[in-house]
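Hello K.,

You asked for the raw outputs rather than the summary table, so here they are, unedited. I folded two proteins back to back in the same session to keep the settings identical. This is the first:
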Amino acid sequence: MRLWGVLHSPDVQAVPTSAIAAIKLLMLTGRRLGEVLALEWAWINFNSKMLSLPDTKTGAFKVPLGDETLALLTELKASPAADAVYVIPGRSGSKPLVNLQKPWRKIRDLAALDEVRLHDLRHTYASVAASLGLSLPMIGKLLGHTQAATTARYAHLADDPVKLAANLVGGAFVKMTSQ
């Protein structure tokens, strides 16, 4: 993915590391922007690999953390700014970062993703999950959706996995009829 490559390139040196970390967390967790920016260290349980969000759009929610997410959080915890309450601290360190728009525009331009919004990263998370074969109910659980219809709107399938699926189904029919 082009965006992930840009986040790891020397081209983003002018972008604050806290903004880069926030965007990576958005991509790796599928969480909403406000949830990532307000994220407190106290809500993360490294042993159980869980994040306990006390207040989301649908209420309190437990988020399972994958290995890549834990690696990023461990790296952030080891940084000098980790003494702060917030995982993504603002300039003062005593409050969270509140706005990603300026760094996002810079990163988005570097990745040549002109029309992509930060919230689109949540849709991308769902689409990647769908392309990996995860069911809509499972994707809904990952995102914290209470309605399957909401998840269906998020989980846009990329053309390549759909083409692959069409080939698999077509191949199965050919095998059945040639026996």
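The second followed immediately with the same parameters:
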Amino acid sequence: MKLKAFLLIAGCIMLLCGCTKSNIIDSRETIGPDFSHYTDIVIEEGQLHDDVDAVYLDPDYYPMASAIDFELHLDEEYIDVYVVVKDGTSPEDAAWFADQAIKGINDQVAVQDFSYGESDEDTFGGLYQDNVIHLKVYDESSYAKGTPLYETEVPKDTYMSFDIQY
């Protein structure tokens, strides 16, 4: 009786093992990141504005920040960037924040489209390799009047620091 039960159980086990799909990973399958090249990626500007605001208007990290606005004109190869700092912000802090805002826009674009390189200490990033930057810096009072404290144009693929005087 014990032998019959043992053979019946062994037969069931063999039958079940033969009828189920193996969960062993086939080493011939490619597992890992997708390195495919995608073209015609459309930047979602609404999401881009939300992401830039969420990061670069955080009062804990950017206490001088009041607003960042921008318009992408990629077909015409330029980007308008408007940076607004709080009244009383020093010219040095306004210049630093303008630099951070430009880099931040690039880095958030790079999140949506991997073909753009990220910014670094001495580059604004891949978005600006093919686009001119039209920068206007305001404090809250000058923004209400429509008169920027500082205005400049940054040529394509150029990094520069800003010397804001007021």
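The chain has a mean pLDDT of 88.

Happy to rerun anything if the numbers look odd on your end.

Regards,
P.
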